[in-house]
Design a protein that fits this description.
The complex is a heterodimer of chains A (106) and B (116).
Chain A: E1 4-7, E2 10-13, E3 19-25, E4 33-38, E5 45-49, E6 53-54, E7 62-67, E8 70-75, E9 85-90, E10 96-97, E11 101-105
Parallel strand pairs in A: 2-11
Antiparallel strand pairs in A: 1-3, 3-8, 4-5, 4-9, 5-6, 7-8, 9-10, 9-11
Chain B: E1 3-6, E2 10-12, E3 18-25, E4 33-39, E5 46-52, E6 57-60, E7 68-73, E8 78-83, E9 92-99, E10 103-106, E11 110-114
Parallel strand pairs in B: 2-11
Antiparallel strand pairs in B: 1-3, 3-8, 4-5, 4-9, 5-6, 7-8, 9-10, 9-11
Classes of the chains: A mainly beta (106), B mainly beta (116).
Chain lengths: 106, 116
């Protein structure tokens, strides 16, 4: 299976900050990379699909980039509701997720 | 608007089985794939397998091969995930999700607790 590694595992930031989360695949996955946000006690929510396409209804402060093995999720200006855990997921072959990045308030 | 509604929480004994349902409303159930993802307490997300209802074909993550069965009933727009030989490590929230190369719609989750 393809291993997905996110960094950092946790991150402290302030409202208004620009934040970047990285996801690296153990082999090339083209652009078959999705990003999710999960809040405690809730199901994950799709933010970005196919590496850089914004899911309908998701604020434009979220963006994704990358292809091959290296991908990033960027939040341009953190809002209070963005503090959550973020997961990357590849759909190139047998589905695997990154271990998650917990975004906390500084 | 497609919605996925899952069955309620379960408490099971080690060695037993659990069957979780996921009922779709809105949309055309048979035309999309349903995946199952689980999350142990305080842990990350783990994909278990998927089914294409229109074909009745399921495939599974190797970790769960032989222990999980995913089925679908087109007449009731319901997908099912059955996990057998339960052990304490199977305690988790189990989610169904519409799978269109990304999981765009999720069920609310079903907590399964395995305890003697």
């Amino acid at each position: 299976d393809i291993q997905m590694t996110q960094s950092p595992s946790s991150l402290s930031a302030s409202v208004g900050d620009r934040v970047t989360i990285t996801c690296r695949a153990s082999q090339s996955i083209s652009s078959y990379l999705n990003w999710y946000q999960q809040k405690p006690g809730k199901a994950p929510k799709l933010l970005i699909y196919a590496a850089s396409s914004l899911q309908s209804g998701v604020p434009s402060r979220f963006s994704g980039s990358g292809s091959g093995t290296d991908f990033t999720l960027t939040i341009s200006s953190l809002q209070p509701e963005d503090f959550a855990t973020y997961y990357c997921q590849q759909s190139y072959s047998t589905i695997t997720f990154g271990q998650g990045t917990r975004l906390e308030i500084k | 608007q497609v919605q996925l509604v899952q069955s309620g929480a379960e408490v099971k004994k080690p060695g037993s089985s659990v069957k979780v349902s996921c009922k779709a409303s809105g949309g055309t159930f048979s035309s999309y794939t349903i995946s199952w993802v689980r999350q142990a307490p305080g842990q990350g997300l783990e994909w278990m397998g998927r089914i294409i209802p229109i074909l009745g074909i399921a495939n599974y993550a190797q970790k769960f091969q032989g222990r999980v069965t995913i089925t679908a009933d087109k007449s009731t727009s319901t997908a099912y995930m059955e996990l057998s030989s339960l052990r304490s490590e199977d305690t988790a929230v189990y989610y169904c999700a519409r799978d269109q190369d990304a999981f765009d719609i999720w069920g609310q989750g079903t907590m399964v607790t395995v305890s003697s």
